[in-house]
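Please describe what follows:
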Amino acid sequence: MALDDCYSVDRLRAAARARLPAPVFDFFEGGAEDEVTLRDNVDAFRRVRLLPRVLRDVSRVDPSAMLLGRRAQLPLAIGPTGAVGFGWRGGDVALARAAARLELPYALSTSATASIEEIAEQAPGRLWFQAYILQDKARLDALIGRALAAGYEGLVITVDLPVGGKRERDLAHGLGFPMKITPRNFWQFARRPAWSLDMLVRRPPVMPSLAGMKKVESNRKAMQSVAGRNYDPAFDLAALARIRNRWPRMLIVKGVVHPADVDAIVALGADALVVSNHGGRQLDTGIATLDALPAVVAAARGRVPVLLDGGVRRGSDVYKALALGAAGVLTGRATLYGVLAGGQAGVQRALHILADELARTMQLCGTPTLAGISRDVLRMPDALTMPWAASALACAEAPRQPPDAAHRYAKELE
């Protein structure tokens, strides 16, 4: 499918699926166990309805935003996604370059197939480094130090991965890293000869930040997938405070869904929170991120910006997240489908689709600026009017764009 024929993120998904072997596509697409949370992240946006205002001048709309201290053309960052080079060689650089074109932040994953320095050299822009909490603390400290030396403006600490989720698609395929062709999956790879020949001739990419670590494979007997096998389940608030003390720039804590966790994280000096359930890839039947967002925003009380990831597939999804108090969103699979379908051009296509849909939604809802988006343009599902969700609805009184602690780092990075 040509990129010009991809007029939605879902069409980009179909194009990516058509060019990748099933084990590879399923690694990027799949979630934990029954994939209830994976689906619910998307469905949560569908459950929320828009209540547009009319007779407003929307001949021009401005979807740009102050996103964690700097102007971005969209209220959006490209979130961290691992192993991208297995789906499109050089895909990490492609994502970062596409983000830089729109002045958007790009978060490089610890499990990326590009190094910290390679991204800084080949795709300079607003760079964040997403650090998984490795059991190998010397390696973790070295990675954080390298990100600081390379000029990354933000450090993203992912806190929702004490152990890996049970990803049954990976178990079914016997997926391992580095990916390899085996008798069990031979025919799956043979049906996608372009991908398979490239990997055979040019060799599979490596994950530089994890180079030298123990090889990771799915173990069907032990019901362990590749995810989270080298991560530290003992990581706690004291360990997070240690990282805060040695990182002098913006610290973003990703993976918060419970409002009771907010105060302690903010108190130790986090500059922003990301409401995230790891794209439904860890704990299944966990709450959808859009459903969790209002209560986390209310608990933050305007002290730090709150972003959201998980389930964003439309520009209207971005609009709904902003209406519920998010300062912006992180894309995961939306831009990932783009790069898997067509490299940098595919990422740019995904971002163009989201930007066009967001601007169109703003016009059709009568809100020419992001500042005009508020909760009164939404009609929520009945679940959010039940007593247990009363605290979530308190976000209606919270400021949509909370004071941005990231400003204090801007001068250093200019």
Observations:
- Residues 384 and 390 are 7 Å apart (CA to CA).
- Residues 3-168+225-379 form a domain with the TIM Barrel fold (CATH 3.20.20.70).
